[in-house]
Amino acid sequence: MSEGVWAAPGRVNLIGEHTDYNDGFVMPFALPHTTVASAARRDDGVLRLHSADVPGGAVELRVHDLAPGRGPGGWTGYPAGVMWALRDAGHAVGGADFHYESTVPAGAGLSSSAALEVVTALALSDLYELGLERGRMARLCQRAENVYVGAPTGIMDQTASACCTAGHALHLDTRDLSQRQIPFDLAALGLELLVVDTRVKHAHSEGEYGKRRAGCEAGAAALGVSALRDVLYADLPAALSRLDDPEVRALVRHVVTENHRVKRVIALLEAGEVDAIGPVLTEGHVSLRDDFRVSCPELDLVVEASLSAGALGARMTGGGFGGSAIVLTHTSTSTTLKKSLLDAFAPTPYAEPRIFPATPSPGARRVS
Ligand code: GAF
């Protein structure tokens, strides 16, 4: 018997990529796609997890036994990690039944795991009357992912799923965790943001993510700052001249210019010059491709084909090595653009991409 139903969305990131573990700026918005959980408390200390989207039956775990390194692998590690993180932080949470159904494409770089974590945390917070504040909820979900699942990700995805609001992009300062909701209503301006899921996830992406993060930390240490956020855009040439390792230099250049791009996008949005953000998005892609080296041929093809077909701007979104790109276009030309993209992929060995428009949607909420 369910005691309630909760939903948490996936996200796309408009700009500010690989900055969230450098104390930098990000600007995600929530997708209409959600992971929905119906849940109920149990008094026998068992966490029962079932997904309509994954073959196989339910998994049952004893909440007392949950510990990093001892968890189940696969998708159940995320909700189990949330249960562990809540209890480890001293919250009085007991057993629970969860049934999940998701429309967030899995493995597409659209934060299906953050949606799963956040919907679990929100349901447990309500069921056990924890009253968790949303920012704290996001931090606990990040801890589940970092410590329990073992993925060294930043705070962006969980904050996006927990804190985004409809019609806005979320400007998050990942150092002090302050937030601003920036109005981002494209439809009213005759614009559309397409998500293009390449349906590819390259092997070793987790290991490569960790390497980029370590490279950024090495850059910060070499420059004597606590995080790359502290390198000002105006000081970038001087900072780069102090770095010997060309790979670290390129990582630093990406992070510093990307933080600057977030500020430029906010200034343009606030000035009402929304279509002018297109070239800034594309610059971000070039930086992720050439300096941060997290793109892949499929994502590069989406960007090139979109720009050739008249898009205002395009870039990969999320961690990279496959996953999705975003494309900013006039609504009047979006149908021809979609066709051009499919035509560009048709003669290649790549899978046909899945293309859909993204409307800034609400963050996590109780449905019933
Ligand atoms: C992944 C991570 F989970 C985020 O924390 C962020 O670093 C992103 O890659 C890159 O911007 O989604």
UniProtKB/TrEMBL annotation:
Entry binding sites for ATP: S51, G107, A108, G109, L110, S111, S112, S113
Binding site for substrate: E17, H18, T19, D20, Y209
EC number: 2.7.1.6
Catalytic machinery residues: D157 (proton acceptor)
Compartments where located: Cytoplasm
Pathway(s) served: Carbohydrate metabolism; galactose metabolism
Function according to Swiss-Prot or TrEMBL: Catalyzes the transfer of the gamma-phosphate of ATP to D-galactose to form alpha-D-galactose-1-phosphate (Gal-1-P).
HAMAP family in alphabetical order: Galactokinase (MF_00246)
Record's protein name: Galactokinase
Species this chain originates from: Streptomyces maoxianensis
